[in-house]
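Sharing a chain and its predicted structure for anyone who wants a worked example. Both blocks are below, sequence first, tokens second.
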Amino acid sequence: MTSELYVFAPALENGSLTASHLLCGRLRWSDGVGQFTYARSWREGNGYALDPLNLPLREGEQSTQINDGVHGVLADAGPDSWGRRLLELERGSLRSPLDLLRLSNGTGTGSLLFSQSRTRPAPPRALLPMADLAELEQVAHQVMLGEPVAAVPLQRIFDAGSSLGGARPKAIVRDAGREWIAKFQKPDDDIDIPRLESACLNLARRAGLDVPDHRVLDINGRSLLLVARFDRPAEGSVHYLSLHALLSMNRIGPQDVRAPLGRVTYGNLAALCRQIGVSDAGAVLYRRMLVNIVIGNTDDHLRNHGLLFDGRWQHAPSFDIVALGGDRQAVGVGTEGRLATIENARSDVARFGLSEAAARGIETEVADAMQSAQAEFDAAGLSAADVTRALGRMHWV
């Protein structure tokens, strides 16, 4: 079986992306192989590479079998694990992975749109208002419990979309012209994750990382974290590329997470980002790695790191930072692989393009910020037991 979709991307005018979309290419899929071809009008006009390493702007078909035949940057614009779960509940089995892109059109990360027409993108789904959060949270709670959900409320939570990776229940809502990701509690959480994530994001900001605006609400007797969408500005557009897509790997082995030759290491990611012109790539990723280590955010996988393009490539804000605990990061740290220690982080400083003095300066700033951990946990409204549990998951410098 062969499937086909047309891909539309924000137009580039005077060095910036606009809110209008133009046809940028066509994706054909058959038996686990995807073939993407840039449109001639895109190549010869003001087009840009959706992924400068894996989908360079050139003539001809570019094939992949990774992600079941969907190029990583296109998969970024599709549903996450939670979104797929909702799609399967609402639609049943799908014919091809291109159905995931078509059915979730406009709710994935970034600004790509998809259509079965080559003349115009399919209209993105209208977002629900903030006032619907109580209903959405209740339906998501039922889905997580495995309880039956009637067709109308299931369609409502499906319409709310899902974005930015992960299996946690979430929805996208609009308020005062701004889009927000509402992240719900799971019934089996052993700690108040929305409040904990809010506090960890505040700590990351104290440590010098750029993080999205966020706030905690109480809905239906449960906590809910609202995170502003950095990939959907009020005006214009931005294009998103995850580091998972940039690295473009199917399988990761032990040799891939050990510096200096491993591909799936923070140091190598910094080198790749510098290769496509991301400014301060080494300093940003070294700081982000340290924050993840000391906070105990061991779910720092490649989909939780990304780049934005608004005429130039730059780091996306840091997101999904939660004190989970454990002694191994998801991404390689240094010569001891994924071992979550500052000593291991220091072992690969050269790969970040940093001097020893610059690296030590970042370490000091991160360590100083972590002194406010208990104050941030308390301010977020965590219970005394949850504060103790969260502090126990952190790795102090």
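Comments welcome. The first strand starts at residue 2 and ends at 13.
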